[in-house]
Amino acid sequence: MEEMSTNFIHEAINKDLADGVYDHVQTRFPPEPNGYLHIGHAKAICIDFGTAMKYQGSCNLRLDDTNPTKEDVEYVDAIKEDIQWLGFQWDKILYASDYFDAIYDCAIRLIQMGKAYVDDLTADEIREYRGTLKEPGKNSPYRDRSIEENMELFERMTKGEFENGAKVLRAKIDMASRNLNMRDPVIYRILHATHHRTGDKWCVYPMYDFAHPISDTVEGVTHSLCSLEFEDHRPLYDWFLKELGFEAPSRQIEFARMNLNYTLTSKRKCLKLVQDGIVSGWNDPRMGTLCGMRRRGYTAAAIRDFCERIGVAKANSVIDFSLLEYCVREDLNKISPRAMAVLRPVKLVIDNYPEDLVEEIEVEVNPENPEAGTRTVEFSKELYIEEDDFMEDAPSKYFRMTVGREVRLKSAYYVTCQSVEKDENGKVTVIHCTYDPETKGGQSPDGRKVKGTIHWVSAAHAVDATVRLYDRLFTVENPSDESKVGSFIENLNPASVEVLEGCKLESNLKTAKPGDTFQFLRMGYFCVDIDSTDENLIFNRTVALKDSWAKVNK
User: Fold this and answer.
1) Is 551 a residue of the active site?
2) Catalytic: which of 167, 170, 267, 468?
3) What is the DSSP letter of 492?
4) Is the separation of the CB atoms in 157 and 186 below 8 Å?
């Protein structure tokens, strides 16, 4: 796998190693199992795992399962699958719940040190007492409870004597701090819920800001790499570790998260799309989830390349979706076999071609990879061509097929349209043409040139398929910004998918299996869908050959 380029995170690690702060590098990727991973997670995965690989260290997968009401084993399994698909392997699989006993002991120590107290204020009252960025907070009336009373109340919380929300445990820091995260943050709350791993052992659960630094340090993480929104939480991260007296505390370093336009990454909003049936599921090819992109035909190598290209920055920015599509095209162009596919077929009959003759024409599997060899495609009297490749009354600059004009059939012959048949509505149903048998291979012996080249499929040998043409799910760059563009539901792209039935593919594709990718000549890159069967082939368009979005949506 390609190595990450040097960035400010690596410079910090280099200094730590040189100064003897650490003698090795250990990172972790800590997702919460409350949804499927999306493209933004891919950047964190590449940074966390890639950094460990660069320094020949280790990276653990640690599931942050501190909120049992929103977590599910389904998500745990999906997270594992996505990480491995991206090309990474964890050193250990761990859970925040592995450390629940240690985290609880740390809470007890803070109470005994007079650094934590049980508070009876409601969530709304805590927010009110917290103050604002311009005004300091106020001390809770319960802040000065004795150590003995706090110990007793926390024990009773742990035994389940109080209802959800009745009490919380807060760290005692500074209600006048300029950093709102330091104003006596909640570190434990009551939650009567069955945990997917610990069952009903606990009815109090630690908050992320408390569980995170303790889990990191107990686990042996040297560098806790996280996104920029946690920068203001770093003083709290460091405070916990200092007050608890850890000898080798982890170091938190923040980087800018990935913001990709036209893409929704909010798990709550993505869940609504799924539950309301707007998309077919978390793995719908229009979703920004990794499983959706995988189903659409995006490759792991392309996503890693994308993450490498955008780099590791200290300031947030918005990345253009077209850059991701460019990376996908670059990779698929190198690895995808070529194939001819007619998505909107119209029949083409070569009147002067022998009735029973079937030729096998040899063409390259992939011009970008000569080692891939060649394949054969059948050529016969009756073919299918694209509906859009014929125009009866064509303008002068139209170089595809029209009556009286000669065009090239890709890798086959020169043909000239002579006449057409139409149905009762005036739609062309059959195109009649003649061919020049001296132009086999698409070259003329007399040197005459044709400007148009079109692809085709032999009618007698064609494979039927359904093709789904996917586009971006939203019409606005930031579908999450409801303050400017209205509800994200209102900004769905009505043309985000078009389903074409009765498409005609070359016979080589009849054995294509789910996950196989191809470049359909002149059409784009396509992937066999997971719903596809031998009897009902289904292809998803991964990406067009060129970026047409910007032109269409100007």
Assistant:
1) no
2) 267
3) B
4) no
